[in-house]
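Please, does this match?
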Amino acid sequence: MSRPIAVVVSNYKDLDDQRSRSSGNFSTVWFGTCSYMDVEVTVDGVIDNDITFGMAIDISNGEDDLKYNEVRNGSRLTYNGSNTFYICNVHNPKLKNFMVRLFPV
């Protein structure tokens, strides 16, 4: 695979004082050409197919914009470039933090 668009580590549960957010903001802005992003999810360096999550865009002083839902390892997402994406709505039966890598397609 090529160099990832984004690499983010997410908590396995909501962050303190958050309704559904489990990661900090990260960027998907890509300076090459791509139409899609392929998702890789790992726990302790091993691919995990059981974790699902959403990805939303943080909107300052407004309602955040949920762009993707039920994302998992192997998902192919339509490319959307933003500097304020975050992981949300996590379902993680392993109860461990996990890493998400997004690759350009």
About this structure: The chain has a mean pLDDT of 95. The CA atoms of residues 10 and 23 lie 5 Å apart.
